[in-house]
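Sequence in, structure out. First:
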Amino acid sequence: MKALIAIDSFKGCLTSAQAGNAALRAFPDGCAEIIPVSDGGEGFSTILTGCLGGTFRTVSCHDPLGRIISAKYGVAGRTAVIETAAASGLGLLRRNELNPVLTSSYGTGELMLDALEHGAEEIWLGLGGSATCDGGIGLLQALGYRFRTDEAKSGSSLVNIQEIDSSCRCKALDSCKITGFYDVSVPFCGPGGAARMFAPQKGASPAMVEMLDEWMSRLCETYVEFSEMDVMNIPGSGAAGGIGGALGGVLGATMAQGIHKVLDIAGFGQKLKSCDLVITGEGRADIQTLRGKVPVGVLEYSRRHRAPGKSPKVILIAGRLSDKEQLLEAGFDAVLQVTPEDTPLPVALAPATAEANITRTIKEYQANL
């Protein structure tokens, strides 16, 4: 049996590489290969820059709360590979600092500006893992856009914005192609939009969620007036706290699924032709997984690019699992929870325990084939 391993990180526990290596240990030498993956969130820049043989540039910028930090992005020829997680990510804040009313995407805009000032002709921006829900306002401000009632560079400014002034925007934007690579495709605002779906995990209370969604709705109208585009329904417009909407609606960026780009660059399709089993996964798998996260992206890509007459099994592993029936209906051949139900959370999150659980689960799966 030949296997391809394409597992996302188990957030707060294992990196994608650690999870992949744990799966690799379940196979004899030479019978499995790890494909590094990201859906646009953490790891997007590192993986793509590495695959392209690029280098990294480290710059000074602002974190989500406006503090000066150092962040890096990739450079491959005239292409800059940036991820929102680098300057605007959840991982930059302590738990008690999470507050999407106060956080800003300004630092991500600073990384883009640096790339433009150093001659980037194309920018790939990975959208995922952000601590923000500012609709991309901070990012646009860093690129020179101004807003009537231009106050804080954060979600709290959304309520006052009525008009966009692009007269001072960075002129290098005119000759740069921008592509936003989103992790999950959610609308800009509304019941399934950025604030309601993801602001709670960024520290928002129920009252904050209502307020942010109202602000995002008003901002959407402003973006529509500026661009004459249906910003609400641009694919990935709600990704990274609405940065997708700013990219597609204001900057005229192309939008695409991040996992598909990573798999393309990593040569997953070619390697798929000689494999019998694909193993994908993430820390927690549930109905949200089907919105375009790494596992369903790997599943779709595997079905689309399989060789004629060949149909490798695609299995999903997760630290915690719910909505199993829906995941199986989506097309996975098996859906496996690696963590025993009676395991206390602190124990389950210990890297050594999680790695051992992944290896054991995959060995058991092979034994039952």
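Second:
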Amino acid sequence: MSAMHIDPDFLIKLIGLSNVLEQQINLDHGLRELATMTAHLLQVNNCSIMLIQEDEEVAAPVLRVYAYYGDLPAVAQQESVRLHQGIAGRVASSGQPLLVEDVTHSEFAAVARRSDTANPSLIAVPIWLSNRVIGVINVNNPSDNRCFRQTDLNLLQVFARFVGKSIHVVQLQNLLNSRFLQHAIAVDSRSSGAASPPAINPDPAKLAKIVAKTVYRELTDAGFSPPDILRTATEVIHLFNQSLEKHKRRAEREESR
């Protein structure tokens, strides 16, 4: 198969890739644009971005699809992948990229999702934020039917670095825009005896614990009893579920356009 043709405006488009998320208020929408742009730059028909999140049911981190370009079965959109499992799970747990020239004759033949195309090659690379993996980018089905080579892998790793940095910037911007989170971090810092507030950490799991402790402490100090605090938390969860449902319906409408 022929090698991928490099667009002469590649560097300009790469800079544009790095600015996509920073220009978006909504992270999900920005990730969808990144998946689309990555697919166009790499000349592939399918691209998906998976991020790691904690799954309370299995009490372990899992990968879930947050954005994709091209055809992706509905079951795959809702599926969670444990680390160490499958192609994306191995990449996320090891932190090492994976290029498979022919998945049908590889150790992943039984777990790989196959599209209608006859092209058997795929690439999956980790998305890094500082020194930890926060997700995986997967691409397959090259539009020119070439088999992926090292050049494609190198380019996708560059894209993944830009995606990780962009996600970091968006999370920091959202934190800086939230006075409550700033207050929660400051309160947590004082309670732990730190001389000054720590650097903002965009890890959702850590932030959730800080916010939960701060809310509990503030409600307790305000005279709320444990049953009152429980009712308050239940109402917050109810409002959150309503917001998620509205967001899901809006996303479905945008996808159907």
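Remark: The longest helix spans residues 226-256.
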